[in-house]
Design a protein that fits this description.
The complex is a heterodimer of chains A (380) and B (813).
Chain A: H1 2-7, H2 25-35, H3 40-51, H4 56-67, H5 73-79, H6 86-121, H7 140-154, E1 158-159, E2 165-167, H8 168-177, E3 190-191, E4 196-198, H9 204-212, E5 217-226, E6 238-248, H10 253-267, E7 274-278, E8 284-293, E9 302-303, E10 310-311, E11 320-329, H11 331-336, E12 345-352, H12 353-361, H13 368-371, H14 374-377
Parallel strand pairs in A: 1-5
Antiparallel strand pairs in A: 2-4, 3-4, 5-6, 6-12, 7-8, 8-11, 9-10, 11-12
Helix pairs in contact in A: 3-6, 4-6, 7-12
Chain B: E1 2-4, H1 5-11, E2 12-13, H2 18-27, E3 31-38, E4 45-55, E5 63-68, E6 73-78, E7 88-92, E8 107-109, E9 112-114, E10 117-118, H3 136-139, E11 159-165, H4 176-187, E12 190-191, H5 193-200, E13 210-213, E14 221-228, H6 237-245, H7 253-265, E15 269-273, E16 281-286, E17 292-294, E18 300-302, E19 308-311, E20 316-319, E21 323-324, E22 337-343, H8 346-356, H9 361-368, H10 375-389, E23 394-402, E24 408-412, H11 414-421, H12 427-436, E25 440-444, E26 447-452, H13 462-473, H14 494-508, E27 512-513, E28 519-520, H15 522-531, E29 551-552, H16 557-569, E30 574-585, E31 593-604, H17 630-643, E32 650-653, E33 659-669, E34 672-680, H18 682-687, E35 695-700, H19 702-709, E36 723-732, H20 737-748, E37 752-761, E38 770-779, H21 788-806, E39 809-810
Classes of the chains: A alpha+beta (380), B alpha+beta (813).
The complex binds zinc ion (ZN).
Residues 294, 296-297, 301, 312, 314-315 of chain A line the site of zinc ion.
């Protein structure tokens, strides 16, 4: 029986041990030996050639020869059943069905294994770079500006924008508001006629805001300012400021200090020592300068060098670096805009974006900001 | 302003190190920028006598000396030509570290032992003199030198000098006296006996000199004093050193004394050569129009009538408060001088100094405000010192013109201090702090009546006194009040929201954000304005610093093109930049008009990276490794517009100088133009030496501010199945996509849900002069399923419309 069926299989077919595909191969052979020894050789050979099929095509041929519905050996074996006795038929039928099921299992396992092998062979080099589009980076000054506006927004300050040019009348009136002798004069860019000038500070914004709005006021004024100065590593003829203004009943220097310290903790770091000291600014009385501890020398005033250290070049040995100016709004400013300084008090502050960015990122030259070299822009 | 500690100590008794003084001044508003040592010490260097100087046995140019180092005899080899027996010299003993860092060690020089080094002036860093060994009896003439004692015994002690940044409103700090007052208040010190005496001294005046102040507003106070029989000559070493510490070189004894008093009292003095004054007389008056004077620096200067001059009977001899004239300068031949000590109106001095572009130590003080009451003590100090330096001198004629000062009185409420500082202040504390600064204080109920000292010209308001109290008490004592919003809440302006969205949408397209300068050259500005069809009414600077920055940019193209050119020069293979900012043009208003806009440029490769290998490209095939073209760029701008919620922007061909002909467009919404896009023209790019195609986009942001702040109403998506159709049409080649698109949309009606162009074809199979445009259409009815017959009907309408409006036909399959 088995021999005739075996003859239907190509004797040149490669064979392999099916034990890797069906772990209970040996047990099956033993079971078949008990049930119908005539089919043992068929099952052994059948499972071995399925396991030995090298690729999907070979496997398909062998599957057809073994399990094909029309001329497969199982079908042939079943076709010969009528020649057998009733008892033999019962045993043979059961044994053939068993062989059919087991071979199908071996075939399926082998097909799975071939698919896996094939996928493994088609593996991609996942380390090759992707087809990559460009990424855009916000300008470093934008990032500082956004951080500051977000911070002050969180503290309840709304933003206001002012035109960058103004009439000299406005600026002259501001000059008159300055306390005592005239404040430090900045070289101005004069536009068109003698009457229009580019702003040298963003502070004109808060004078105008107070004229147009009623307290309480909590505002920040970001903007570009201009000075008629020659450009070098540490001077630009145009740079950026953010001014702030807070006017309400009973605003004090204690509120100012809290606001400035919150700013320093948020923008620098939470534990960086700060100090406020007196300074003269027009528009404010008393005036305040905020310093943060020098990051370059960690507040020692000295930096280590090969020949024993030298004075810190950033803070010039003073251990502190100035970050902003502020103060209580001058009562004459309040009067000029029609606010009673007995009813309202307030503070104002102003800071430079470039100075903050230079300190935060260690940018050595102010010129880099407007040069827009991609190798610079893409770092931030 | 420099503040030598030794000088400070002549005025104030206090107990603190120079560092503590610096700290105290800084925290009170006088920022100390640094503390430098003036002079030096020479540990290890002693006074020695040369006993014998013999020729070195093995070297012609060296001498072998026997040295008395004070009871110890040493052998020293010396190369100086002047060394001789009997000299008193500085000897660096073994182990001494010289000022230049060299350590003196026992040495054998050409076989002879040397146990130290004799020093030249240069080796002690006293001068550049290295011609020979320093003779100490010459350096310390008149002093008895003890052999073996350290040379430091005879050198003045090194002095710490503070570099103080005097606040603009505190001109009193521009003299040692003013800073001494701050230190005294800060450290609880007291005036020295000498200081009390100097402050109490008064120069007496007789009415014997011919002096007239013809401009009482410009010069309310003037003191003239003649000193006869003076001897002009070099200053004594103490005076030279005192001025050196202030950074002032010595000129002669008279001028040096005026400078000394200037630095000490902050009161400028001037000495005229009396013999050169016609009259002799002094007239203080306005300058005549066009009046000329040659100042001490040898320059002839023309004055306007605003200037105040000091004149003699005939001519101007000085510009008041600014600089003296050359003709009356004190010189070696001067025998009598006229001392001037005056108070000039600060604004007048400031205007004259500015008009002449001449700033001096005197003008810097006068224009900020000299203590109007210090003149008498200052001139007394000058005259006392002058009589000491020139024992034969005699005071001659004098006269004083003096306007009486109104004392300034202010009222201070401690409640105001508490309210502004945010820290409770009792009346006693306010009084104590003000008294320490020499304010006169009397109580008046719950307030203080405060007499402002004459030197505090800055204190004119109650809040100025609040500042005095706040800074005296220390800003470090101010508490941090808890932050509260008091019910206020912050809003971002619609403008700021639009700017943020615009930036983020552009960043997402892979463009880097640039910040460019606002000042550009005229030719750049003209070309940029033209590109947007703007009348080139540029806003010009009256006082530009350079040709590259003479006008305000009319739009942001110039800055970005500069940046693009810069990066291409640096070898960038792709440049993608944008900027948000304002373009400025003169549109006839009182102020220039600022237009908020975003401008973007792209050039170079399409992808940041691809490694795809490309076979032979068919003509017109999309090359992933190629450079961005018009439609790549347009895709970026369309996506950006979509992110900006711009509703159905219409693209139309646009032509203007600056753009490549046939490759530029304008974008409109309704009737208004909001953007420009296209490939820039060669003539514009050539200005920046850019040789590659650059695609640009300009969009005005103001129109979007409104759109962005509108809140959209929600629409429920249709629930009935949609029907899709792909239709291709042959249309004449000149027919634009926009035209066909509009025609199809109009014919389809409201059931058309979307229409997408998916193919443009022209080639075999297209009729002559035609092209094929293929669209994917989707139809959907809001309330029911569309019947096939309805779709057929719509399709028929579309075909008819295309035939009628565009002269086209359906392309049958
Ligand atoms: Zn430092």
């Amino acid at each position: 029986m088995s021999d005739t069926l075996l003859a239907a299989l190509d004797s040149n077919w490669s064979a392999a041990d099916p034990a890797a595909l069906t772990p209970d191969h040996a047990a099956r052979l033993a079971e078949l030996e008990q049930l119908d020894p005539a089919l043992v050789a068929l099952y052994r050979r059948g499972s071995e050639v399925l396991a030995g099929a090298a690729d999907a095509n070979a496997l398909r041929d062998r599957h057809t020869a073994l399990l094909g519905r029309e001329r497969g050996v199982i079908t042939l074996g079943l076709a010969e059943m009528p020649k057998l006795s009733v008892d033999e038929r019962k045993v043979r039928g059961k044994a053939l069905n068993l062989v059919k099921r087991w071979l199908t299992e071996v075939h399926d396992a082998r097909r799975e294994a071939i698919a896996l092998e094939r996928e493994a062979a088609d593996a991609l080099d996942v380390t090759l770079p992707g087809r990559r589009g460009f990424t855009g980076r916000p300008h470093v000054l934008s990032q500082v500006r956004d951080d500051l506006l977000d911070l002050f927004h969180g503290l309840g300050f709304s933003d206001l924008h002012e035109p960058r040019s103004g009439t000299r009348r406005v600026q002259l009136r501001e000059a008159q508001l300055r306390s005592g002798p005239s404040g430090a004069r900045r070289a101005r860019h004069v536009l068109r006629g003698p009457d229009v000038v580019l702003r040298t500070h963003t502070s004109p914004g808060w004078v105008r805001a107070m004229e147009e709005r009623k307290p309480p006021l909590r505002l920040v004024f970001p903007g570009r300012v201009y000075r008629a100065e020659a450009v070098d590593a540490s001077h630009m003829d145009q740079f950026h400021q953010i001014d702030g203004l807070f006017v309400d009943r009973n605003v004090s220097m204690a509120d100012l200090k809290a606001t400035l310290n919150t700013f320093a903790r948020a923008i620098y770091r939470a534990d960086l020592p700060t100090r406020i000291i007196p300074i003269y600014f027009p528009f404010v009385e008393p005036g305040v300068q905020m310093d943060v501890q020098c990051v370059t020398c960690s507040g020692t005033g000295h930096i280590a060098t090969a020949d024993g250290g030298k004075r810190c070049p950033v803070c010039k040995g003073t251990k502190w670096v100035e970050v902003l100016g502020a103060g209580m709004v001058h009562p004459n400013v309040f009067r000029a805009v029609g606010i009673d300084p007995e009813e309202y008090t307030g503070f104002a502050f102003g800071m430079g974006l470039e100075r903050i960015a230079m300190g935060r990122y260690g940018i050595p030259e102010i010129r880099l900001f407007l040069e827009n070299d991609l190798r610079f822009l893409e770092q931030f | 302003m420099k503040l030598p500690i030794s000088w400070l100590r002549q005025w104030v008794e206090y107990d603190a190190t120079p560092q503590q003084v610096a700290e105290a001044l800084t925290t009170r508003g006088f920022y100390v920028e640094g503390v430098e040592l003036h002079g030096r010490a020479y540990p290890g260097i002693v006074v020695a006598r040369v006993l014998e100087a013999n020729k070195h046995p093995n070297a012609d140019k060296l001498k072998l000396c026997r040295i008395d180092a004070g009871g110890v005899e040493l052998k020293v080899v010396c190369g100086a030509p002047n060394v001789a027996a009997g000299m008193t010299v500085p000897l660096a003993t073994l182990g001494t570290v010289m000022p230049n860092g060299l350590e003196i060690k026992r040495a054998k020089i050409r076989g002879e032992e040397s146990e130290g080094m004799l020093c030249s002036a240069r080796e002690l860093m006293l001068s550049e003199d290295h011609s020979g060994i320093l003779e100490l009896t010459e350096l310390f003439a008149g002093q008895e030198l003890k052999i073996g004692s350290p040379v430091d015994t005879y050198f003045p002690e090194p002095d710490a000098v503070l570099e103080v940044e005097v606040p603009f409103n505190r001109p009193d700090g521009m003299g040692v006296l003013g800073l001494a007052r701050e230190v005294k208040a800060a450290l609880g010190g007291r005036w020295t006996v000498r200081a009390q005496a100097m402050l109490a001294e008064r120069a007496k005046a007789a009415d014997t000199f011919d002096l007239k102040c013809e401009d009482a507003e410009g010069c309310p106070s003037y003191f003239a004093q003649v000193v006869e029989h003076v001897t002009v000559g070099p200053s004594p070493s103490w005076l030279v050193r005192a001025l050196e510490a202030m950074g002032q070189r010595s000129i002669n004894n008279i001028v040096d004394l005026t400078n000394l008093v200037l630095f000490e009292f902050g009161q400028p003095l001037h000495a005229f050569d009396l013999a050169k004054l016609d009259g002799p007389a002094i007239r203080v008056r306005r300058a005549n129009a066009g009046e000329k004077i040659t100042t001490l620096d040898g320059k002839e200067r023309e004055l306007n009538t605003e200037a105040l001059v000091i004149a003699d009977a005939k001519k101007a001899v000085a510009i008041a408060g600014v600089m003296g004239g050359e003709t009356s300068e004190v010189s070696a031949s001067t025998t009598s001088i006229l001392l001037e000590c005056a108070w000039f109106q600060p604004a007048r001095v400031r205007r004259t100094s500015k008009a002449l572009a001449l700033s001096t130590d005197a003008s810097k003080r006068y224009e900020r405000g000299v203590d109007p009451a210090i003149g008498s003590a200052a001139s007394a100090r000058f005259l006392t010192l002058l009589l000491e330096l020139c024992p034969g001198a005699k005071l001659g004629a004098s006269r004083r013109v003096h306007a009486e000062l109104e004392p300034r009185t202010l009222t201070l409420r401690p409640s105001r201090v508490t309210r502004l500082v945010g820290l409770p202040f009792a009346i006693d504390r306010c009084e104590e702090l003000l008294r320490a600064l020499e304010f006169g204080v009397t109580r008046e109920g719950v307030a203080l009546k405060v007499n402002v000292p004459t030197w505090r010209l800055d204190c004119t308001l109650e809040d100025d006194l609040v500042e005095e109290i706040a800074r005296s008490n220390g800003y470090d004592k101010i508490p941090e009040a808890p932050l509260h919003t008091g019910g206020a809440y912050a809003t971002r302006t619609p403008r700021e929201r639009v700017v943020r969205r615009a930036r983020e949408a552009m960043l997402a397209r892979g463009l880097n954000e640039a910040w460019c300068g606002s000042l550009v050259s005229e030719s750049e500005a003209l070309a940029a304005a033209e590109a947007l069809g703007d009348e080139p009414k540029l806003v010009r600077l009256v006082n530009p610093m350079s040709r590259e920055g003479e006008v305000l940019r009319p739009n942001l193209l110039p800055g970005l093109l500069r940046a693009c050119a810069h990066n291409l020069r640096q070898g960038a293979s792709a440049v993608r930049l944008f900027e948000v900012g304002a373009g400025v043009l003169d549109r006839g208003g009182r102020l220039p008009e600022e237009r908020l806009m975003i401008v973007a440029l792209v050039t170079g490769q399409r992808w940041k990276h691809t490694h795809d290998t490309i076979g032979a490209l068919k003509e017109g095939a999309y090359d992933v490794r190629g450079a961005v073209d018009f439609h790549d760029a347009k895709g970026l701008w369309e996506a950006w517009l979509s992110e900006m919620r711009v509703d159905s922007p219409q693209w139309r061909a646009y032509a203007a100088a600056g753009w490549k002909p046939g490759a530029s467009a304008e974008v409109a919404v309704g009737a208004s133009r909001i953007a420009w896009a296209g490939t820039l023209g060669q003539s514009l790019l050539r200005q920046y030496e850019i040789e590659v195609p650059v695609h640009a986009f300009v969009a005005l942001l103001e129109p979007m501010v409104e759109a962005a702040s509108a809140t959209p109403r929600a629409k429920v998506p249709g629930r009935f199945p949609s029907v899709r159709r792909d239709l291709a049409f042959f249309v004449p080649r000149a027919t634009t996509h926009a035209r066909l698109h509009e025609c199809l949309g109009g014919a389809a009606g409201e059931v058309l849900r979307s229409i997408e162009l998916f193919d443009v074809y022209e080639g075999p199979g297209t009729p002559e002069g035609m092209k094929s445009l293929a669209y994917a259409l989707e139809f959907q009815h809001a309330e029911r399923t569309l019947a096939e017959s309805e779709v057929q009907e719509i399709q028929a309408r579309m075909v008819a419309a295309v035939a009628r409006d565009c002269g086209g036909q359906l392309r049958e399959r």
